[in-house]
Amino acid sequence: MTGDRLSRSAEAALRERVKELSCLYGIAQIAARPGISVDDILQGIVNLLPPAWQCPEITAARIVLDGHAYSTAGFAESRWRQAADIAVAGVSRGTVEVFYFEEKAECDEGPFLKEERHLINGVAGQVALIIERIETEEDKSRLRDQLIHADRLATIGLLAAGVAHELNEPLTNILGFSQLVRKCPGTPEQALKDTEKIERASLHAREIIRKLLTFARQVPSKKKPVDLNRVVDEGLFFFDARCQKNGIKLVRSFAPGLPEIVADSGQLGQVLVNLAANAVHEMPAGGTLSVETCADATHVLVVVEDTGRGMNEETIEKIFTPFYTTKDVGQGTGLGLSVVHGIVAEHGGEIKVDSKIGVGTRFEIRFPIATQSRVMENGQQ
Fold this sequence. Notes:
Helix Hairpins; Heat Shock Protein 90; four-stranded antiparallel β-sheet; elongated; alpha+beta; 10 helices; 381 residues; Beta-Lactamase
């Protein structure tokens, strides 16, 4: 009889070990599924837990991670609980919990076996490793996107600078010869008027090229005290003719005597150009583009507002993500607003968006007013 009892006890222990190993193997299989979401992984793991405990018919399980709970069907808490912390990179992010619905005989840890303590700790460790692996892969993906983003911006800058330099030489010739024609004695009055128009157009084109070079960052970058009104006005230089052509009313409202901010004027111009270009794109049937500057006690503000198509909440949440765009193929790269966000953040500012479908979009950017210490600090760079 004693031998039979020992044999039955060994068989029971073996069955429990098989259940535990099956649970851990099931977790590995779930985590290895390609494309499976974190939610599905954790729900799958929860469903594996009750059969791995000695009394599955009265067992419920729950995993709580970052405030989100995943539980078995008909889950209910009870006073018979076994739990283990989920620690990802040394930080507690949640728990794995197992409950009994009914009271059982006392074992090693209340109604639970010491082997079940080892199992629940192992499950919590596996969950932590899975989450850490997924987050590491997401970080790598984000870094890869940022590198692609930076490379594309560098390429765009080189192309813009190359085009600008190529145009400068023929424009200089056009300007020079038009000035020579005007100095020739006996030139007809009408020819003088025409050459004057050529000269004005050449000067205008040269100014555009100068601003394009600044926009492409071929001018050395350096933060210094900046008059935001001047930067905004120069940035809008690109849009006067374009707005008139598209039936858009461009309204400037600049507060006089704005306090200076410490900034890279070229980067601020890039912010304004991107916001204004997006606004014009969103008003294909015309509208109003308003650009306002003002200040409060600690910040200088620039507000860019349009009466265009507007955005829903889902789009607003994604607009600063690199390469996200709602434009048709060939009309946008999805880089503009992510660049805007990066520049504003790098200048210690913040950007807010308010938009309604069919009403329009409003961007408000706040930059901290320059203090003497910030001016000196940036002047030493």
